[in-house]
Amino acid sequence: MSQRKRVATAGSQSKLARRSQQVVLDEDDDGDASFTQLTSSQVQKARENFTSVQVDRKVAEVVQFILIKDQKKIPIRRADIVKHVIKEYKALYQDIIKRVDRTFEQVFGLKLVEIDSKNHIYILINKLQPVPGEPISMCPGNPKTGLLFVILSIIFMKGGTVKENVVWNTLKKLRVDVGEKHEEFGDVKKVVTDEFVRQKYLEYLRIPHTEPLEYEFRWGQRAEKEVSKMKVLEFIGELHSQEPQTWTQQYREASSGESSQR
Fold first, then answer.
1. Short-list 230, 259, 258, CA closest to 245
2. Could you report the per-residue pLDDT of 23-43, keeping only the tens digit for each?
3. Is the pLDDT confidence value at 261 over 70?
């Protein structure tokens, strides 16, 4: 191969590499700039370029993608929806996501909620409600839900923030010892500080200026959206055979939360 051909080939390969790199960067980018730069004419043109059948299919694909992601209760990033599903339909993102949200509400009884407007992160929520006619139970569905409900109750009754040792000691009284492998939950501490935190039900935060290090729990973003504080208070009242109004401050907060969600 001549010197000129080698240079030309190398140049072509270099251009190809740069182009490939740019494609990767574009795919990995959240694309906030391109979202904000979309004009109404670009959106209208996209609407004309795709048939209603194509858009219907894309809506169904997004619904399926979110349902699969939500099985592990992991928050869903807009960037991932665009990269893996929306793709060339990006200009129609707002149209598609509105229809996706409507589908979840009408078909599944779920609500798609954006919990982080800066990074555009979504979760699917389903109100934790007791079965009609049944007493409120600490296990409304499965054992892990029951464990979570108890921890959320502890945090709520303690004013919204509670040290982790308070949670561990309370669970121990309920025969759930974080120092031992539980037959139902396995590693309890991992479930609570890893799984529940990753799912955004809990926040597990280091307390500043503590030696040795101490941590505290708070309600996570998903819990704030999904769990009724009034139901938590009714659960506590049932345990103590008292009316929810007995706890004045908590009842006021729970009532305020119920009215704001209507």
1. 230
2. 333 334 445 555 656 677 777
3. no
